[in-house]
Design brief:
alpha/beta, 237 residues, 35% helix, four-stranded antiparallel beta sheet, 2 domains, Rossmann fold, Ribulose 1,5 Bisphosphate Carboxylase/Oxygenase, 20% strand
Length: 237
């Protein structure tokens, strides 16, 4: 039998000691006690939803602004024309352009995390679908990344606005809500607003239990089941 690493031993110990769902505060304490990596791990939340994500009317997709930020520097690119390019520059966009930027993307340039586009450039940008689509970088009105308000979109993305959607199979939604080095209060605020937004976008056609389970994990740590009622309590605290 292979010998467990120190990290695996800590995770196994936590899993054995954990009985039943935890409050967010308890889960964070355990995740931080399990930290053995030199890098700053990302804290992730994963929702198992009672939806059939293969049905169009049960797709769960939205955005949420994390008040505590993500702990990650987000590189934002903007495809726009005329005065909108100056607006993008003033808002802090990392890359911006029109036909020139689209051509650059066609040549393989993907050094950005989010792409914002104005509606009048989408016809040109749609040709890049095979490149941007698989990377999850194609602008979409539902994510607020196709907009005439370029400056606002750039600032929100830089400040911690994230998008989420159900995975193709299993009705799972997962996203990062910050770094393990964050103060607990910062992570709890982020968790609360995500939980609230998940509730708000419940599809009308979904019957029965909508949020079946919620897990909190870190990049190299254990996955811990949360007590959903405790998330609601922290949300309204």
């Amino acid at each position: 039998m292979a010998k467990l690493s120190k990290r695996q031993q800590v995770i196994e110990k936590i899993n054995k000691e954990t009985e039943g769902p935890l409050s967010p505060e308890e889960a964070l304490k355990k995740l931080k006690s399990a930290k053995k990596c030199k890098f700053d791990e990302t804290v992730e939340v994963s929702f198992k939803l009672g939806v059939n994500s293969k049905l169009n009317d049960q797709q769960v997709r939205s955005t949420v602004s994390l008040p505590g930020g993500t702990g990650k520097e987000v590189r934002v690119a903007v495809v726009a024309k005329g005065e909108k390019l100056n607006e993008a520059k003033q808002a802090g966009a990392d890359v911006y352009g029109a036909e020139d930027l689209i051509a650059k993307i066609g040549d393989g340039f993907l050094e950005f995390d989010k792409l914002v586009a104005t509606p009048d450039t989408m016809a040109m940008l749609s040709k890049m679908g095979k490149i941007l689509g698989p990377k999850g970088l194609m602008p979409n009105p539902k994510d607020g990344t196709v907009t005439v308000d370029v400056g606002k979109a750039v600032k929100e993305l830089k400040a911690g606005k994230v998008s989420f959607r159900t995975e193709k199979d299993g009705g799972v939604v997962q996203m990062g809500i910050g770094k393990l080095s964050f103060e607990d209060s910062r992570l709890l605020k982020n968790l609360s607003v995500v939980f609230e937004q998940i509730q708000k976008v419940k599809p009308a056609s979904v019957k029965g239990i909508y949020i079946k389970s919620v897990y909190l994990s870190s990049t190299m740590g254990p996955g811990l089941k949360l007590d959903i009622s405790k998330i609601e309590t922290s949300q309204h605290a």
